[in-house]
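Protocol step 4 of 6: structure prediction from sequence.
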Amino acid sequence: MTPSKKVDLDISTWNDHVEDTYLGIKDHLNETPLLSSKKLNQLLGIQIFVKAENLQKTGSFKIRGALSSILNLSAEQLRNGVLAYSSGNHAQGVAMAAQIFNTSATIVMPSDAPKVKVLGTKAYSPNIIFYDRFNESREEIGKKIANEKNLTIIKPYNSINTIFGQATAAFEVVNQIDIEIDSVLVCAGGGGLTAGFSIIMKKYYPKCEIYTAEPEHWNDHEQSFKNNKITPLKSIRPSICDGLLAMEPGEITFKINSAMGVQGLSCDDQHVIDAMKIAKEYFDQKLEPSGAVALGCLIKNRSLFSGKNVVITFSGGNVDDSEYSKLVNRSN
């Protein structure tokens, strides 16, 4: 079944689409574990369950949306090839998914993307085009190339099929746990993973509160939810979370997340760094900064979640060894 491109907010309909999507892509995925640490739970007074998507193929959840999107392409679109723009995790997901479905991939990446993400993307032999993220628009570059070569753009978040793919992570969660979930914190850039989680979690746990987790100064979701409209960031600041640097929520993701009552949280770099260290100490997981933001926001707002059953995402683990060591050594 090819999911409708209309943004239908009937939860039961979306849940059916997600299940169909999962059946179509699960053979190409790792069913990532749901981790818990008794020691950390006792320390924080919160029952924490971690969906460890850093253990997913390509090192992040992005392969889910890429597989879902390419799965739904026509034979002609597959013959022509696909294009993606990404700082690394979506790039790797699309490059691998393209290889699985035997189509070509062109990837537009920032010139300052982490080396581990560039190398990870190159492993699947796409055509990579680098750009200056501070002076050029990846969307404009991507659209121009796609038009010239008749390529299909695989969007990183603002796409129904991408969202259905990301939702398969949450679909696994509800089949891995047998207690009521009170809250969910999701690492958020464009909001696709959050939209996917909200579709599934609100179906199975209607009273569950869902939060986007963002880096401070890149909290476009948090600001947009407060203003009840998409609110673009007014300025760009450096951030260690290279995978979450969206200027504004996606139109589709914001519509879904708003309808589901999603709220926004954010934290500074030090909370992210502390979260990276905690992830290693209590879960033996090495996270990239972007993948640790949900834990960082949980730590910052621990009183908000006291005594609750909380699911958080470890959304990615693609980080250079030297950069990782430098960051965790800054932790308090």
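Step 5 (inspection) to follow. The beta strands are 34-35, 47-52, 82-85, 105-110, 127-131, 152-153, 183-187, 209-215, 263-267, 309-314.
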